[in-house]
Design goal:
The complex is a heterodimer of chains A (about 300) and B (about 140). By secondary structure, chain A is mainly alpha-helical. The radius of gyration of chain B is 15 Å and the shape is globular. Chain B starts with 11 loop residues before the first helix and ends with a helix. Classes of the chains: A mainly alpha (about 300), B mainly alpha (about 140).
Amino acid sequence: MSAIPVTLTSTPLPDLAESPLALATLAAKQRQPARAAARPRPRATARPPARPEPGAAPKASAPRAPAARTPAAKGGAPRGPALQRRTPVAAPGPWTPPRSVAAPAPAPGYAKASSAGDWAFLSDPKLSIEEKLARFAAVAMREIDKELEAKMAKYKADFVDKKATGSGSGSTKGASVFDFVKSVVPGMDAVVGLVGEGAFKQAASKLGGPALAAAATAMGFPELAPLALKYGGDLAALAFTDVGGSSAAKSGSSSSAAQSAGSPDEKMAMMEIQLLVEKEQRMFSAISNTLKALHDTQMAAVHNLR
Amino acid sequence: MLGNGTTRAGTRAEALGLTAELGRAIATLAGEALAADRLAAARDMLEGLVVVNPREPLAWALLSAVARRQGQAEAARLCAEVAVRLAPRDERARLARAEALLLSAPERERGRAELRGLAGAAGPVGERARALVAALGS
């Protein structure tokens, strides 16, 4: 009978009456812990960044690639010069896309822009219900915004351009869609007053809709985020274009654009825009109330624990 | 969440789905607020942005400028150093650090040297650097 290495394991020694095959299997199992012990231990993974002390200023977080992600850190063979990481102009983050994916240099620390379907988040199991509701609101409002943009473009084509080609008599100061919106949407005056109308127009002309929405949220006016989404980029010029009055008149009048709307068709067009804005507000209110109800439910459970 | 704006997977921005376009646009809006002397609003936006994404060098550079305008030299220096650490070749970060160094007497000469180095840059950064160099008589 072949000698079976006896090691200090929890595996009971076989009965001598067992078959040689079973004995060999058991011997192999007993040798496995020895092999595992002899195997070189893997390198320690990257430690999480140290937490700053409370109240301390944020430390300079020098960009460090996670240790387990680079071949050198994994203990693999050192790469040649062609594959060594070059010093980037901007510090890369852990989101750096794999080499197989051709993508422009992404900014550090941000999420990748999603290229999947707008409603794909509904089937994402990693998202909470609150996150899905928030994204639902964003997508639904985006759809409404597209409709609103189409209505505003149609308004411009039907009434603004036609009046611009017509006689520019008088020196009456016209009003723009922006003035109309200020009169329709509560709180808009407050936001514009925060930054000044000139700066607001400048920002709206320069920034995209989502940036204005984020800024509106950051400034404490989340209910204006849907409106800010619509007044970004190219539409800023449309929103601030005067309707009626002389061509030299600039928007800034506090008079409502509806006052200068003459024909019934024009009034109807503005009413449709107003209805869409109200629809957006109702959607936002519904989602907001739902989120609040969910939060209250969770807080009730927390309070009951005490 | 690790408490320093990062998670095991990345930053809060990544967890929230905040894209670079949004982040940079917020930083731009904060820059405009700073230019319009609305320091509190700029600071709120920038502090929020650096909390959500601590790896955004532009936000740190602008926050340094805000702190400098508010007379907080140490905070301005710290934010500028963070910006330069994140983007050593970013001219805006280097300009923010140069201006923050000017606030400290021992580091003033180093700040002047950095401004002279930036004087050849193009765009508003170069213009400001040249203006400061001329004003300092360097």
